[in-house]
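User: Earlier you gave me the apo prediction for this protein. Now I'd like the version with zinc ion bound, so I can compare the two side by side. Same sequence as before, with the ligand SMILES added.
Assistant: Got it. Here's the input I'm using:
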Amino acid sequence: MSRIAYLTTPIYYVTAQPHLGHAYTTVVADVLARYHRLDGDDTYLLTGTDEHGEKVFTAAAEAGVEPQVFVDGVAESYVRAWQALRISNDDFIRTTETRHVNVVTAVLQQVYDQGDIYFDEYEGLYCVGCERFLTDREIVDGKCPDHNLVPEKRKEGNYFFRMDQHREWLADHIRSTPGFIRPERFANEVLSILSEPTGDLSISRPRT
Ligand SMILES: [Zn+2]
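And here is the structure of the complex with zinc ion:
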């Protein structure tokens, strides 16, 4: 029986040129896609680049070029790398493409219309490396332990997703649907995070 196999690599962050780690991940996905095609499955393999974020902005500034010029150059390197490795991806998506922006906008609008997104001012300690506000628990000796950076005090107006309202049914769904998250240890990790209040999630960045 023909099944549907939808596979995606991570969309790679374009702060730098592709390296062996990206190639490894993409080749693994390609092997899996080829296996599914041989098995007669309706298969789709996606890869691409994530071209938004403060780190991209900073990398472009360091390279001395406009962000769009910078990401165009790095994205092109990824396309050429996968051609050289004969990766059989069906599509290559860039988050700066209009077709991507349109879908994300439509999804967020629907979630907003359902009342799950609201606007609020938020003040906290922000790690530039993590690109997010840290909780008190995450800060060790006044620093982000992952980046060894002192977080900055920032106040931002942001859109928030009402995550806490969805914790219970999501945890129930994960528990009652074996294989929903694989491998199982990651399902357990997510369940552990969902077992206590997560706070609402900041899902935007201010336009500066
Ligand atoms: Zn950090």
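For your comparison, keep in mind: The longest strand covers residues 117-127.
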